[in-house]
Design a protein that fits this description.
Blueprint lengths: L4 E4 L3 H6 L12 E4 L10 E4 L8 E5 L5 H14 L7 H11 L33 H10 L4 E7 L10 E4 L4 E11 L4 E8 L8 E6 L2 E8 L10
Antiparallel strand pairs: 1-4, 2-3, 3-4, 5-8, 5-10, 6-7, 6-9, 7-8, 9-10
Length: 226
C-alpha cells in the first residue's frame, strides 16, 4: 500500500526547505503532511525512525504516488549536494552504529539480551511469551553477547566468518561485516563469548587468511539522530 523513501543526513532540513517543507519531529515520532504545489502526491506519512544513525525522515506515500515523491526529493537532494543511494548504504550505516538487523543480530535463536536490545523487553511485566527464558538469561547472563570488531589491517570481514582468540580457540561468529566509509577500515558485529572483554585482540578467518581485530563496544561512530 505504501512506498518508503528515507531522507538522511546533515543537509536533510536544507533539502526539504528547498521544496517548501518544514518539519520538526521528535525522534521516534510521526505525522502526516501534504506538500504545497504537489497535491498530486497526496497525503504522506512522515516518521523519525531512521536506521542510519543520522538525522532524517522517512516518507511513506501511497504506493501509486511513490515515484512522484521520489523525483521531487531526488531533485532537492541533488541540488543541495546530496546523493541518491540504496539499501546497501543503509546497511553500512546501521553496522557503523551497531544496530541489530533481523536475521543477522536478531532471530529466533538470538535473544534481545544477547543482541544488546534488552531495553526493548519489559521483564517486569507479569507475563508474556518467552518471559521465563529471558528472565533466566538475565539472571545468569547470556551465553553470547554482541560486540564490535575493529579490524587492524586491510581485511574486510563478512557475516559467517569465525572469530578466535589469538591462542586459536573459537570464541564467536561474525553476524555483519563491511568496510566503514567513515573510518576507512573493516568493521564487524559479532556474537562473542561474554568472557571476551572489550579491548581484546582476536583473530578472524577471512577466506583462509588470518586477520586481527580489536573488540569494541558499538557504535563505531557518533550518533547524529537527534
Amino acid at each position: 500500500k505504501y512506498g518508503v523513501i528515507a531522507l538522511q543526513g546533515p543537509k536533510t532540513t536544507q533539502a526539504l526547505e528547498s521544496i517548501g517543507v518544514k518539519l520538526k519531529l521528535d525522534y521516534m515520532s510521526f505525522t502526516t503532511i501534504k506538500i504545497a504545489g504537489h497535491e498530486n502526491i497526496g497525503e504522506i506519512i512522515v516518521c523519525r525512525t531512521g536506521y542510519t544513525g543520522e538525522y532524517g525522515f522517512e516518507f511513506l506515500p501511497l504506493w501509486q504516488n511513490s515515484l512522484l515523491l521520489w523525483k521531487l526529493l531526488e531533485n532537492a537532494v541533488l541540488k543541495n549536494g546530496g546523493r541518491v543511494c540504496g539499501l546497501g548504504a543503509r546497511d553500512t550505516l546501521r553496522t557503523e552504529m551497531g544496530y541489530p538487523l533481523h536475521g543477522h543480530e536478531l532471530s529466533l535463536d538470538i535473544s534481545p539480551l544477547q543482541a544488546n536490545a534488552g531495553w526493548a523487553v519489559a521483564l517486569t511485566k507479569n507475563s508474556f511469551l518467552g518471559a521465563p527464558v529471558l528472565r533466566d538469561e538475565k539472571a545468569n547472563g547470556p551465553v553470547q553477547i554482541l560486540r564490535g570488531l575493529h579490524v587492524q589491517d586491510k581485511a574486510i570481514p563478512r557475516a559467517g566468518m569465525s572469530v578466535k582468540t589469538i591462542e586459536g580457540q573459537e570464541c564467536g561468529l561474525i553476524t555483519s561485516g563491511t568496510f566503514s566509509p567513515t573510518l576507512k577500515v573493516g568493521i564487524a558485529l559479532a556474537l562473542l563469548n561474554p568472557k571476551i572483554e572489550v579491548g581484546t585482540i582476536v583473530e578472524i578467518d577471512v577466506r583462509g587468511r588470518i586477520s586481527r581485530a580489536k573488540v569494541v563496544k558499538p557504535p563505531f561512530v557518533t550518533s547524529n539522530v537527534r
